[in-house]
Write a structure and sequence with these properties.
Elements lengths: L3 H16 L6 H4 L1 H27 L2 H17 L7 E6 L4 E4 L15 H8 L4 E6 L5 E11 L2 E11 H8 L3 H6 L5
Antiparallel strand pairs: 1-2, 1-5, 3-4, 4-5
Amino acid sequence: MSRKSPLRFILYLPLLALLAGCSGSSESRNPATEEFRREIETAARGLVASLAGPMARGDRDAVRKILSVEAAKSRSDAKAAGRQVIVLDRKGVVYECDVPFVCDAPRDYSRTDIVGRALKGKTGSHGKIYAANDKELFLVLTPIPKEGEKDGLLGIVYDAEAVRRERGVQEKEFLAMTFSP
């Protein structure tokens, strides 16, 4: 064997890996994952824009109305199907909510990992949570800004099983998503 053979093998290794499908992120391999991420970001931007004013004024009725409209959209719009919304105050306590088994009573979620990360960080966070009935949920938290500070958090919640079944997005792919601030 010549001395060039091992060197050639090392030089061709990245090409072999590429051909074997060993490069790229899980997001880039599943178009459904990228579509779902964009859908979440679009919904979050619209809801945050709608909620910022009422949250800044402490107008619970206006927040409730926005959530009611969103719930109706979730029932009638195939794109929004299964999407539910929770609004937490700046301390991580439920402010308003339309998520059964999560919002039965005002709860303080500030000590949970996902909410704690969103409250401490400049951007939101996302992950898997469990409802009181042990149902798996995917949660995306986005800050609701007020004059450069957080006035609360918008939580967009999806039934994890429905996301896997109907959208073709697996838990690993959801957890690997990165969202724009």
